[in-house]
Amino acid sequence: MLLQEMTWPQVAALPRSTPVILPVAALEQHGHHMPLFTDSMLLGEVVRRSAEQTRDRALFAPLTWLGNSHHHLDFPGTMSAEPRVYLDLLEGLLENMLTHGFQRLLLLNGHGGNIVPAQQATFEFRQKHRQRADLLILSTTYWTLGTEPWKNCPALEQRQMGHACEFETSMMLRIAPHLVHNHQQVAEMSFGTAFEPAHRAWITRDRTTVGHIGKPAIATAEKGEALFQAFTTDVVRLIDRMVAWNGESWDG
Fold first, then answer.
1. What's the pTM value of the predicted model, to 2 decimals?
2. Domains of the chain by range and CATH?
3. Does the pLDDT value for residue 252 go beyond 90?
4. Phi, psi at 188, each rounded to 5°
């Protein structure tokens, strides 16, 4: 179900246990060969497929395209919410749906820079409503749910999501090839190891001067379809777990 296509009485008639999915993404640079709206377009396709498969089992809100992208601001065109403003925005979205009575809420993310803010927002939101025992408040990023897409598509070389990389470029070639420019000529930019397993704070130009990370030259639309299928399957499985939750247990 798509929130934007419903009337308010239709929303009011839904069971309060209906999972509500709040997609969040970004508008930011994606190298020389990919559009700034890449993250939002890719998540939008995952959401479209997931909504088709879940039908009346879950309610999908419209995608929020503004994200936490300050690390990309050295590249023209990037738009980003201030970090604290973004946290407040995410908490506000959750609060809206709680006001309407919904108890099972998911921030479904499609941008790496939103991962920590989404986790922090759900953490703070749960503390604010600590007296409620009936809430299931989740955040996740669609490519972090455990799938290993290369098992069903051995042609994939990467083993992790990069930025305007083999994964993202393949997915864009699947849904909007006219927006991908000469990716076959784009040189590989190594992921590197930084100071792993420690987490190093970084801005994009610490890692790449051209804007991408990974190997876009090997991207294909066929790989993109395999990726969309794998990521959508993971999202639908998570939603089904939300539906099946008994309303009180820690596990689900």
1. 0.94
2. 17-244 (3.40.50.10310)
3. no
4. -70, 140
